[in-house]
Write a structure and sequence with these properties.
By secondary structure, the protein is of the alpha/beta class. 50% of the residues lie in helices and 12% in strands.
């Protein structure tokens, strides 16, 4: 049994807390929102974000960060990506060397273009950080629907420990040394999911979505490889696996937000209706900046930014993507 602190009581944090508890661990869940902690203590259920998932009486919920961190072997960083920096900075004063931090948020810091594991390592020097990613909607994980995921770390022994910690009959875990690649795939798939949702909102069909997923994956993998990620990562669980589920499922807040944008809503209106952080919108500017920094062509990412921040009509974006100059999909040396 391990003592685990789950930092963040949103749907993903609660789903992982339930999973890890069922695996025989002692769980403390922290939230900075006192009303959320009160609700969890009284209802033993997150009635707003994960209704129907009942939580055990001996799972601890607290607004005291020190008690959530002290004495824990593993800390799960499950706050939305915009709050990873501030949460890590607060954790620093209580962190003890050897504690493993598992980041499960997905995003890129907009001003520095650092991945979230790099943000944590900057705020907590000499920390041991891993990332967990893959096709894993909290609504299904919380109910014990079979899911497969990947954990990436710099040290093999840490990866194997976490694999055993999370693994269950409904949660299969693979390991990877490619932390950078896993994080890039996880963050950028949310931008492509916005595009897929926009296409849905415009009333387009399966052909359009398949094209967006395929060409979106091409953009993600081009950038990821330019940033040092391994090519096979982007065709694995944190790449194409996560991209498919995020573009196709109504559990996906990014797809739902994209549908609203395609129907003519503003980003602010979509955010208000979804009632959750739209990670793709937070990541879109950073993704575009990275494409420029590494000189990687990313037309879908570029056009999503124009919808989000330049009020370009969604239908015009689709037309512009379709009418781009002709391209070669696979370079063939034998044609030379």
């Amino acid at each position: 049994m391990s003592k685990i602190g789950v930092l963040g009581a949103g749907s993903w944090g609660i789903a992982l807390a339930k999973l890890l508890y069922n695996n025989g661990n002692e769980i403390t869940v922290w939230s900075a929102i006192e009303d959320e902690i009160k609700m969890l203590n009284e209802k033993r259920e997150h009635v707003d974000k994960l209704p129907g998932v009942k939580l055990p009486d001996d799972m601890i919920f607290t607004a005291d960060l020190e008690s959530a961190v002290n004495g824990k072997e593993v800390l799960i960083m499950a706050v939305p990506s915009p709050f990873v920096k501030s949460t890590a900075a607060s954790v620093k004063q209580y962190y003890k060397e050897g504690q493993i931090i598992v980041n499960v948020a997905k995003g890129i810091e907009s001003d520095t273009l650092l991945t979230l594991s790099e943000v944590i390592e900057r705020e907590i020097p000499n920390s041991t950080v891993a990332v967990l990613s893959g096709p894993s909607h909290a609504e299904e994980v919380g109910k014990g629907v079979p899911t497969t995921i990947v954990v990436a770390t710099k040290k093999k022994e840490t990866a194997m420990f976490l694999q055993n910690l999370f693994m269950s009959e409904v949660f299969r875990v693979y390991t990877s040394p490619d932390v950078r690649g896993v994080e890039i795939g996880a963050a950028l798939k949310n931008v492509i999911a916005l595009a897929a949702g926009i296409a849905d909102g415009l009333g387009y069909g399966d052909n359009t979505k398949a094209a967006l997923i395929t060409r979106g994956m091409a953009e993600i993998s081009r950038l990821g490889k330019a940033m040092g990620g391994r090519p096979e990562t982007f065709y694995g669980l944190s790449g194409i696996g996560d991209l498919i589920v995020t573009c196709a499922s109504m559990h996906s807040r990014n797809r739902r937000a994209g549908i609203l944008l395609g129907q003519g809503k503003t980003l602010e209106e979509a955010q208000a209706e979804v009632k959750m952080v739209i990670e793709g919108a937070n990541c879109a500017k950073a993704a575009l900046a990275l494409s420029e920094k590494y000189d990687v062509c990313m037309p879908i990412v570029s056009e999503v930014n124009k919808i989000l921040f330049e009020n370009k009509p969604a239908k015009d974006v689709v037309n512009d993507l379709m009418l781009r100059d002709a391209r070669i999909e696979i370079k063939a040396d034998e044609w030379k």
